[in-house]
Design brief:
The chain has 192 residues and is an all-alpha fold. A two-stranded antiparallel ribbon has the order 1-2. Helix 1 runs antiparallel to helix 2. The radius of gyration is 21 Å and the shape is flat. The chain contains 11 helices and 2 strands.
Length: 192
Amino acid sequence: HTRLQGDWSSDVCSSDLALVLALHALLRRFGVRRGWALGASLLFLASPALLYCECWLYYTLFEALLLVLACLGFARLLERPTAGRLAAYLACATSLCLLRSTFQPAWLLAVALVPMAVLPGLRRARAAWAVLALLLLPPLAWCAKNRAVFGFFGTSSWAGMHLLRVTAADVTPEDRLALVRSEEHTSELQSP
């Protein structure tokens, strides 16, 4: 994580404000009364988790904003299905896919096909399929780049580093070397 300094703080404050406003709009769209929606949004704004995310530049704040905006976009799409609303919804989902490796292209495809499946008007509209193809292109191109450069098809080239941090971060380099040299674990550590 990178401690915020200088110009980043205004971006984070803007993201906070956008997140609270989007959360309020989403709650109102779900039928929550204005006062309750405002209270819940302000409570979220004052939550320790959000305050922590404000101090450290990391994905979580932007991920939360994009998830709320995607939910809001999907709700608007269900109200009145148009190619423009589909594009707004899928732009949030595509941005999530590019921002965080948790959201793989398979997830994006599933999220994109849901409105196409439940809204017959979109399924028949060529513009909707064009929007879908256009917004699937960036993450697929990213995965193709990773295939060419790193030898795997996925959105994150940091998967090995993340796995190392979770599984072996506390193992000293000496112990790790001894483990690799031991006959017992050699076959497990070699690539297929």
